[in-house]
């Protein structure tokens, strides 16, 4: 678990995911703590993925696409228009939404221009896709439901 100083250095990101108790569910689905292959990441012939592409996240809930915000949040986010009703909104980190380390193995790659509210948690270096998925799964306890 990150202490307050460590959490302040991890970029704050938001994502809609299915719960597994009080943590996000790990799996290969769209609303899970993972990157979808080959949609989010495209491994090379050695099953390795490179920095730059990964699991989608957003700078704030207000800047998420409304169709991703679960309908159970409509009281807080009136623009909520869809998403899986079983999903929850989750937050990771408290630092600024800038390119930087999430863990030793993961990095935030924020978008640019009109996509600046969107980013991806990508591998911090080339690694086997299974190692990348395990690195994402290892963050499970760091996410907070909002």
Walk me through this protein's architecture.
It is a single chain. By secondary structure, this protein is an alpha+beta fold. The protein has 2 helices and 11 strands, in the order αββββββββββαβ. β7 (100-101) and β8 (106-110) form a beta hairpin. The longest helix is centred in the last third of the chain and has 9 residues, at 129-137. The two termini are 18 Å apart. The model has no long low-confidence stretch (mean pLDDT 94).
Topology record:
Layout: H1 4-9, E1 13-17, E2 19-20, E3 23-24, E4 48-49, E5 55-58, E6 88-92, E7 100-101, E8 106-110, E9 118-123, E10 127-128, H2 129-137, E11 144-145
Antiparallel strand pairs: 1-6, 2-3, 4-10, 5-9, 6-11, 7-8, 8-9
End-to-end Cα distance: 18 Å
Secondary-structure class: alpha+beta
Report the C-alpha radius of gyration, rounded: 14 Å
The total strand number stands at 11
| Weakly predicted, low-confidence segments | none
Shape: globular
Report the sheet with the most strands, covering strand number, pairing sense and barrel closure. 4 strands, antiparallel
What strand order characterises the main sheet? 5-9-8-7
Q: H/E element string?
A: HEEEEEEEEEEHE
Figure out the total of helices.
2
Residues in β-strands, percent: 25-35%
Mean pLDDT metric: 94
> How much helicity do the residues have?
10-25%
What characteristics describe this protein?
146 residues, alpha+beta, three-stranded antiparallel β-sheet, 2 helices
Nutshell version of this structure?
The protein has 146 residues and is α+β, with helices and mostly antiparallel strands. The chain is 10% helix and 25% strand.
